[in-house]
Amino acid sequence: xxxxxxxxxQGGYPHxxxxxxxxxxxxxxxxxxxxxxxxxxxxxxxxxxxxxxQHLVFPDRDTIVNMAVTMKGVSFPQPGIFLVELLLDNQWVxxxxxxxx
Length: 101
Known about the structure:
The chain is mostly beta strands. It has a single domain, classed as Immunoglobulin-like. The protein contains no helices and 8 strands. The protein has strands at residues 6-7, 15-26, 31-41, 47-50, 54-58, 65-76, 80-88, 91-100. Strands 1, 3, 4, 5, 7 and 8 form a 6-stranded mixed beta sheet that branches. The chain has a two-stranded antiparallel ribbon with strand order 2-6. A hairpin with a 2-residue loop joins strand 7 and strand 8. The protein starts with 5 loop residues before the first strand and ends with a strand.
């Protein structure tokens, strides 16, 4: 449990990370909005993994909605920086990075 921004695999590559949770707090939405999380190799934009499409429900623009997605069995092909991207209604909203060392 905890927050991290890097992973130090003990073995070689590809590194399969058994599971981790992507979390975000969102506001200013309205209605039911589809979302997904994508992971890409930052240097090339290569798609590495993605969640299934799920839905967030914003009852009004003032409500803060917590989003949590468990990513299981993500295979990181090489060391480097990876983008963890949040897309709402198929539009990029935010990202953060995780570095594999």
